[in-house]
């Protein structure tokens, strides 16, 4: 059987979901193919459960700092609670897009011709195809996703292998929830994000030590070993034979996010940089280019990145344009002072003395990054409350009819 659409999307994570939403708002006929849970990694096993647990951890620390008492936290209960919330969110998100006219096909999609996605015996023909297949862990083992979904319940002594955002975030959350946590660091914390200065990594390491998280350079014995050593793009060549990839595994795209096959676009983690905040912006760019013709380019420097660990650390902008740097203490602000004294903003200015880069460590960094991003006409960090602003501007967000 064959079915025709304006756009066929493979993958319902933040990349695929957002492309579908934007295009449905423009009244296009859209089909989305998903082989697993609707919402992808972000909703089911990544950003959303992590943010819930992070907020519990931060609140608990604040209570302890103020009242000097430890409020016992129950990991299993928290996981059950967030998974209940996620199943509601997943159903709502799916229903929301269906009401807008989305056709969802469950099964594994493969590109059998330049504009045909096949799912079992069904051929989905699109004027455009959008690939949003996401990423998977590079190494075998128990992954942060297994911990956040409750597939694996950590035992008392935990070793987190990795020094990237997920490793730093999970180590912090588990420690506050009462586990004995060590983190295996080969280089320095957050070294995969060169925009973050070494001094910020050092501050985070000090905060870890103060919390009782052991930073180790060699593998140690633990009850649960969590492998958080990075992810790789998930586009396998057998299913998508016409799509050109870099040796790194990422899909080759032009600045408009079109692949080597005209009319086939790629979004999300199969195109660097990885991360849901980037996936949303890539989705906006692709939806815009489908509606208006190829004219909008993807600019990663306009997307804020925020890591939520013992400190919030974030950045936005283009550090290559900096000619002068200034530092600002966050405690100049009374709200910062009364809540959490420590925090630094590092601001980079260009030749015209305009701020072009902002990097910060402290609490409330995502709020600051998002405000700075608005000034740069950029997008918002994820997950953040500021993302709702996009809804306010939805009529003009992806122009055209
Ligand atoms: C623990 C953790 C925490 C994270 N926290 C954050 C955070 O706080 N902020 C942030 O910005 N990012 C975060 N991320 C990263 C974020 O989750 C990913 O960048 C984002 O989910 C990528 O979106 P995507 O649309 O590319 O793919 P995914 O969300 O991975 O979704 C891809 C979907 O495609 C489907 N699929 C793949 N191939 C096929 C096929 N052939 N046919 C049909 N369906 C297919 C998959 O089943 C999947 O549902 C986190 C990741 C992890 C693991």
Report on the structure:
This protein has twelve helices and 18 strands. With 401 residues, it is an alpha/beta fold. It folds into three domains: 173 residues, 3-Layer(bba) Sandwich (FAD/NAD(P)-binding domain), CATH 3.50.50.60; 89 residues, FAD/NAD(P)-binding domain; 86 residues, FAD/NAD-linked reductase, C-terminal dimerisation domain (Enolase-like, domain 1, 2-Layer Sandwich), CATH 3.30.390. Strand 5 and strand 6 form a beta hairpin. The longest helix is centred in the first third of the chain and has 25 residues. The protein starts with a strand and ends with a helix. The structure holds flavin-adenine dinucleotide. Flavin-adenine dinucleotide binds next to helix 1, strand 2, helix 2, helix 3 and helix 5.
> What hetero molecules are in the model?
flavin-adenine dinucleotide
Number of helices: 12
Give the class from helix and strand content and strand pairing: alpha/beta
Question: What is the count of structural domains?
Answer: 3
CATH architecture of the largest domain: 3-Layer(bba) Sandwich
Distance between the termini: 30 Å
- How much of the sequence is in beta strands? 15-25%
Give a quick account of the main beta sheet: strands, pairing sense, barrel closure: 7 strands, mixed
Number of strands: 18
Tell me the Rg in angstroms: 22 Å
Q: What does the average pLDDT come to?
A: 95
Low-confidence stretches: none
Which range best describes the helical content: under 10%, 10-25%, 25-40%, 40-55%, 55-70% or over 70%? 25-40%
Give the topology string: H per helix, E per strand: EHEHHHEEEEEHEHEHEEEEHEEEHEEHHH
CATH class category name of the largest domain: Alpha Beta
- The dominant shape is globular
């Amino acid at each position: 059987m064959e079915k025709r659409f304006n756009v066929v999307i493979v993958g319902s994570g933040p990349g695929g979901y957002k492309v579908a939403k934007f295009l449905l708002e423009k009244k296009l006929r859209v089909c989305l193919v998903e082989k697993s849970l609707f919402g992808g990694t972000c909703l089911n096993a990544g950003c959303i459960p992590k943010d819930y647990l992070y907020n519990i951890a931060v609140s608990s620390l604040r209570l302890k700092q103020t009242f000097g008492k430890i409020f016992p936290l129950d990991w299993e209960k928290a996981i059950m609670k967030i998974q209940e919330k996620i199943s509601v969110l997943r159903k709502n998100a799916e229903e929301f897009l269906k009401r807008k006219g989305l056709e969802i096909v469950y099964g594994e999609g493969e590109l059998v011709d330049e504009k045909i996605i096949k799912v079992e015996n069904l051929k989905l023909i699109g004027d455009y195809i959008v690939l949003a297949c996401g990423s998977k862990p590079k190494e075998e083992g128990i992954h942060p996703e297994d911990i956040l979904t409750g597939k694996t319940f950590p035992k008392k002594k935990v070793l987190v292998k990795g020094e990237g955002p997920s490793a730093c975030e999970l180590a912090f959350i588990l420690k506050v929830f009462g586990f004995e946590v060590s983190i295996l660091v080969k280089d320095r914390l957050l070294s995969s994000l060169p925009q973050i200065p070494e001094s910020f990594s050092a501050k985070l390491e000090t905060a870890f030590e103060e919390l009782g998280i052991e930073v180790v350079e060699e593998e140690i014995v633990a009850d649960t070993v969590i492998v958080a050593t990075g992810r790789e793009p998930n586009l396998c060549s057998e299913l998508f034979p016409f799509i050109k990839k870099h040796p790194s595994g990422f899909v080759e795209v032009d600045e408009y996010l079109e692949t080597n096959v005209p009319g086939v676009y790629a979004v999300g983690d199969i195109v660097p940089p990885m991360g849901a905040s980037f996936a949303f912006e890539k989705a906006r760019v692709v939806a815009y280019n489908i509606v208006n013709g190829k004219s909008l380019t993807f600019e990663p420097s306009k997307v804020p990145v925020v890591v939520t660990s013992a400190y919030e650390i974030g950045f936005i902008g283009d550090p290559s344009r900096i000619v002068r740097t200034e530092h600002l203490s966050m405690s100049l602000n009374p709200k910062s002072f009364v809540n959490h004294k420590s925090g630094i903003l590092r601001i980079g200015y260009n030749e015209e003395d305009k701020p072009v880069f902002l990097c910060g460590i402290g609490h409330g960094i995502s709020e600051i990054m998002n405000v700075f991003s608005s000034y740069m006409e950029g997008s918002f960090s994820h997950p953040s409350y500021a993302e709702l602003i996009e809804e306010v501007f939805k009529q003009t967000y992806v122009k055209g009819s």
